[in-house]
Amino acid sequence: MPNSPRRKIPEAALIRLPMYLRLLGEVTAQGVTHISSDQLAELAAVNAAKVRKDLSYLGSYGVRGVGYEVAFLAYQIQRELGVNHEWPIVIVGAGNLGQALANYGGFVERGFGLVGVFDTDPSKIGTQVGGICVQHLDELSEVVQTRGVSIGVLATPAATAQEAVNRLVRAGVGSILNFVPIVLSVPRGVHISKVDLAGELQILSYYEQQKVNSLSHIQGTTTSSRAVSA
Amino acid sequence: MPNSPRRKIPEAALIRLPMYLRLLGEVTAQGVTHISSDQLAELAAVNAAKVRKDLSYLGSYGVRGVGYEVAFLAYQIQRELGVNHEWPIVIVGAGNLGQALANYGGFVERGFGLVGVFDTDPSKIGTQVGGICVQHLDELSEVVQTRGVSIGVLATPAATAQEAVNRLVRAGVGSILNFVPIVLSVPRGVHISKVDLAGELQILSYYEQQKVNSLSHIQGTTTSSRAVSA
DNA sequence: CAATGTGAATATATTCACAGCT
DNA sequence: AGCTGTGAATATATTCACATTG
């Protein structure tokens, strides 16, 4: 076991690994075989020291005075992320967002094969979504077991999300990508990563609001609301 | 100007405000009028001190010994986030993801009205997506100006994403929600928030991989790859 | 007296700066 | 000479713990 990872990668660093991996893929396509932390930092729009520190959690895979071998580094990141294994996924919830995600090519493109789409609405069951026949949620467990699914994508209405999570967990799914903007409870050991689409917009709204505020400050107008209507 | 905010809210706290706001809405619907940091922390699944610290950046809106008045606190968060103003949005890219986002009810539900969907593909232009007629990207500037759009959602293919960003910025958009997994360059002052859907899965893949590794450790098997095929 | 608001303590993340290799 | 890897320094975030207050 020559260089197994030093154990846990800090969350902040982990989040950047997929970006580095993608960038390495891009430069490979351009024929680049070696890259320095400065160059990778430029592409990633981050500090070079951060790149080196992040990569150091994987091991010492660079060469002093030279940089990193792109293919080798990419392999090490893949190995650490576990994406050189297959991770079939299921989507629970075949509404607008669920269908969208099923049709979204980006998952398959980066190695996540969709093996099931589930809903409880009889009018949805049997329809084709993303090349997959929508099945009743009761079939979830069967598919998760037989296909060895450990990651589920949650895109149900808010009201049924917790029940869907319970079923995913009971079926054996160990990680969930949650698009439903509610706080879900999961047993210890189950990872749940949340994407709140409207929440992201609200954060952007804050930044835009700040700009408006600072402008009205300069102009000496009050901050009381006038701009409520479009 | 009685209690204008103390200036910039730390990023880490800002990210949680939309969650608090949503939770306050939920408890309001249940008839709750007052809430303590302990209770809100329970709902949000975070530490109570964190809730108080986060809320303290907005001002002192709690009452010692009592807690926070839900409606008043919600209003203050809304005001701080700027979501009591209208923020019409546009979507650039009417492919799978763009259509999905256009049809996704969650944006409108939380106050973000969709006023334009843009693409350059002639076969897409003129089709109805999310109740909106897809327009050519050349029309972007016109719509942004007349509708006062300051937030754009980016869902183009990777190859055309930077050009689309340039157009958004030139048209006057100040913040961008980016679903395209590439690093984009924007001028100073333009905010760009990134959602890398496949990247999220890769992070989950890491956690699942960790579980596999720790299991094989216990069983004394090597970590060398065998589980590559499904 | 119950719960806020906040300094102080701790933990985590980022950046600097340079010793150590190739 | 050039670039990594990393301790030390700094910055940011979280949590503790309690004085303060309605």
What does this molecule look like?
Two copies of one chain form a homodimer. By secondary structure, the first copy, chain A, is an alpha/beta fold. Chain A folds into three domains: 11-81, Arc Repressor Mutant, subunit A (Orthogonal Bundle), CATH 1.10.10; 89-195, Rossmann fold; 201-230, no CATH class. Helix content of chain A is 45%, strand content 16%. The first copy, chain A, contains ten helices and ten strands. Chain A has helices at 11-14, 17-29, 37-44, 48-56, 70-81, 96-103, 106-109, 140-147, 158-171, 197-219; strands spanning 34-35, 62-63, 67-69, 89-92, 114-119, 128-129, 132-136, 151-154, 175-178, 191-194. In chain A, helix 3 (37-44) packs across helix 4 (48-56) and helix 8 crosses helix 9 (158-171). Chain A is globular, with a radius of gyration of 22 Å. The N and C termini of chain A lie far apart (63 Å). Mean pLDDT of chain A is 92; it is low at 1-6 and 222-230. The interface between A and B is large, with 78 and 79 residues. The first copy, chain A, binds a DNA duplex (22 and 22 nucleotides) through residues 10-13, 36-38, 47-50, 52-53, 55-56, 60, 62-68.
